[in-house]
Amino acid sequence: MPRAREFRRAAAEWCDVASMANHIFLIGLNAFNLNKLRHIRGAEHHVYHGVLDPAEVYDTEVFPIPDMLRRAEDAIRSAGVPVDAIAGYMDFPVSTMLPILCRRFGVRTTSLESLLKCEHKYWSRVVQREVMPEHIPAFTAFDPFDDAALETIGEAGLGFPFFVKPVKSSGSRLGFRIDSPEDFDNAIGTLRAEIGLIAEPFDYILEHAELPAEVARVGGQYCMAEEIIGGHQCTVEGYVFEGEVVPYGIVDSIRYPKVLSFHHYRYPSDLPEGVQARMRDLTGRIMHHVGYDNAAFNIEFFWDDIRDHVWLLEVNTRISQSHCDLFEKVDGVSHHQVTIDLARGRGPDMPHREGAYPVAAKFFLRVFYKDATVARVPTAEDIAAVEAAFPGTLIALQVRPGMRLSDLPEQDSYSYALAYIWMGGESHAALLAAYEQVLARLPFEFADIDE
Asked: Which fold has domain 356-451?
């Protein structure tokens, strides 16, 4: 009997805690991000509920959106607790599912139309042109299944070189620099073979939105051709709360030499303060214009230091989870803080420069093979030894022995990421030196290499 009374008392106490907690549902919640979420301010008052298996949004390129929405809604309703917030930190399909789910449950996020004005690459350029035409490249939409597509691009005033990408993609997938007709033919072959994986689910999302006629004709199978822009790339992380646009951090994006693949992200930015101020101003201008509200975002910019000109590359309707550990190391908590506070209808309680390190970076350990079989990866003991030798370092392998590199989802068109490595340090130079030491202690081997 005493044990029964203790059990009833413990159960009653848990019910009291659950009734007072904020129940927050996150689509595709995985262990890495759950750990970050447990350390944000006020986390002791939150109960996090994962919705959909993480593999459905991380480890696949097949997205049955109607079924995913149905199962997500069923999972939320069957939880048997109040729905205080529904949130996510992933690109497509999670970002585009959120407005639909939030509308169904009456919780906060931005409207689907304002989100699509950022995520639909053609619509995004159209609205950007309305308020900052001098800060965006020349562009046009084209149908990759049209044999006259190259002529359409030329008629829009774009000559070689130019860049092509789908009107909806994630990361740098299916993005190509085009320097010749042969490059274009090769890119078109890949686009025709693979664009349907994202075009069909994106078209389903578009059916839920009110689209202007100019945008409605440009469906998910369409692509963008854009003038080449470049310079020092960075990302402005920000949010809008009740109409106020707040940029709170700028992260530099450093590429491998002479290729489009990222080498590392660095926070805080090393760009001149005047350049950062211009980017923050442009950020406020475009987010006000599209009507985005009560949600997080990030905007990628280039600074052409030769001409001292700022270009807007693209707008993403989420935090970058790649930057979560960087903000935690430098500012004190992950910027999941922003996502969760906004989803709960509150202004974000985001600290500034309260972390353990002045500088932090996420490195991308890559190979530039066309394909290969992974023969060996670092063991758990190898990784533990490196993380112990370099305090604050986190290593996340992306490959396993026996897999083909081409089976990795969400890769750019030029390389494969074998591992992500987050590090903190006293300076950028110190970080780079430490990273080289880490690389020397992480053994990878490959077979059947296709160069």
From this structure: Aldehyde Oxidoreductase; domain 3 (3.90.1170)
Which of 331 and 62 is assigned the larger pLDDT? 331
How far is 221 from 190, CA to CA, in rounded Å?
13
Distances (CA, A) of 415 to 186, 262, 384, 405: 17, 10, 26, 9
CATH entry, 138-227, from 3.40.50.300, 2.60.120.1440, 3.30.1490.20, 3.50.40.10:
3.30.1490.20
pLDDT tens for each residue of 77-119: 999 999 999 999 999 999 999 999 999 999 999 999 999 999 9
Q: Which of 317, 299, 350, 286 is nearest to 110 (CA)?
A: 317
Burial of 433 (0-12, 13-18, 19+ CB in 10 A): exposed
CATH 3.30.1490.20 region(s) of the chain?
A: 138-227
pLDDT at residue number 1: 45
Q: What is the pLDDT of residues 261-291, one digit of tens each?
A: 999 999 999 999 999 999 999 999 999 999 9
Using 50, 70 and 90 to split pLDDT, how confident is the model at 308?
very high
Q: Which of 185-201 are b and which e, b meaning 16 or more Cβ less than 10 Å from the residue's Cβ?
A: eebbeebeeebebbbbb
Q: Does the pLDDT of residue 17 top 50, yes or no?
A: no
Structure tokens of 198? 């994202």
